[in-house]
């Protein structure tokens, strides 16, 4: 029996846990079952208490204190420990039916998604390739305020693309916190970020080319705004354009319709509805009664 799950990823501050909270609330309002798994050993604030929490097995704070490691090294140690103790996940997830959507809330260190092979190993265990047989979709959240700084936006987009290539899963990229930029960026311009347009960087660079040519490339200010910096950004934008893999969906976690639209894409990616058995009217009534009873 196949199970269904979604990985919620992205850099720190992108709104991953907020999205998980909104998704759980939407699922409950839709009378769908979900199982919330926290895989961030440093997390401490949740809208809903996780059904399974890595902190019951290991915490980043304890690892940093006991092993004299920094935050990044400690996080890697926590995931190595998890991979050595996968029964912690299997015992809780294996009994779940196909009616559940399993939500995995992941840490904000992007190294896990871009070049360290720990997460791919975990995915092989969780996914249809492994014993838990979960049909997985990855969501990668990028804060929408990045569109204000075009170089920062394309750097974030490159991280999303790296995660797509490394994890090899159906992938939904999301611009989160849309309520923060709706009055700052026009709809027409925003469309160029939803489907990343590499010419955005060219336009940004052209505006300051004359100033860049007059500065010393060795100076600090030149490194962040001069020719070499612009050339790097243009190369990143061209790479994203050549691969043509990344598009974004807009998310306002306070808007239930927005959350529902994201969920529809996730359901399509994991083929959730195709696996659900038709229910008799009496079964539906019994299920609704159970929801009303809490």
Description:
By secondary structure, the chain is α/β, with parallel strands linked by helices. Helices cover 51% and strands 14% of the residues. The chain has 15 helices and seven strands. A seven-stranded parallel beta sheet has the order 3-2-4-1-5-6-7, sandwiched between helices. Helix 7 links the parallel strand 5 and strand 6 (171-176). Helix 1 (16-29) packs across helix 13 (256-270), helix 2 packs across helix 3 (71-84) and helix 3 packs parallel to helix 6 (118-126). The longest helix has 18 residues, at 150-167. The two termini are 27 Å apart. The mean pLDDT is 88.
Task: Give a brief outline of the structure.
The chain is of the alpha/beta class. The chain is 51% helix and 14% strand.
Describe how the helices and strands are arranged.
Layout: E1 3-9, H1 16-29, E2 33-38, E3 52-53, H2 60-67, H3 71-84, H4 87-93, E4 100-105, H5 111-114, H6 118-126, E5 134-143, H7 150-167, E6 171-176, H8 187-194, H9 199-206, H10 209-213, H11 220-225, H12 227-243, E7 248-250, H13 256-270, H14 272-275, H15 281-292
Parallel strand pairs: 1-4, 1-5, 2-3, 2-4, 5-6, 6-7
């Amino acid at each position: 029996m196949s199970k269904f799950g979604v990985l919620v990823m992205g850099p720190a501050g992108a709104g991953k846990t907020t999205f998980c909270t909104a998704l759980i609330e939407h699922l409950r309002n839709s009378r769908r079952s979900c199982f919330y798994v926290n895989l961030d050993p440093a997390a401490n604030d949740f809208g809903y208490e996780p059904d399974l929490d890595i902190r019951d097995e290991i915490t980043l704070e304890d690892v940093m204190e006991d092993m004299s490691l920094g935050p990044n090294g400690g996080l890697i140690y926590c995931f190595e420990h998890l991979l050595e103790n996968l029964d912690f996940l299997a015992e809780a997830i294996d009994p779940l039916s196909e009616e559940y959507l399993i939500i995995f809330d992941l840490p904000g260190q992007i190294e896990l998604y871009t070049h360290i092979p720990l997460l791919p190993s975990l995915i092989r265990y969780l996914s249809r390739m492994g014993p838990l047989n979960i049909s997985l979709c990855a969501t990668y959240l990028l804060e929408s305020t990045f569109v204000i700084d075009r170089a920062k936006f394309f750097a974030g987009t490159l991280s999303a693309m790296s995660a797509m290539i490394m994890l090899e899963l159906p992938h939904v990229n999301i611009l989160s916190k849309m309520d923060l930029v709706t009055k700052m960026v026009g709809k027409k311009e925003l469309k160029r970020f939803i489907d990343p347009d590499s010419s955005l960087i060219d336009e940004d660079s052209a505006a300051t080319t004359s100033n860049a040519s007059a500065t010393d490339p060795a100076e600090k200010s030149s490194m962040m705004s001069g020719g070499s910096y612009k050339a790097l950004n243009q190369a990143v934008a061209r790479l994203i354009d050549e691969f043509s893999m990344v598009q974004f969906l807009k998310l306002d976690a306070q808007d239930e319709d927005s959350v529902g639209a994201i969920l529809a894409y996730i359901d399509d990616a994991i083929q959730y509805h195709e696996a659900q058995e038709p229910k008799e009217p009496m079964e539906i009534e019994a299920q609704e009664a159970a929801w009303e009873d809490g």
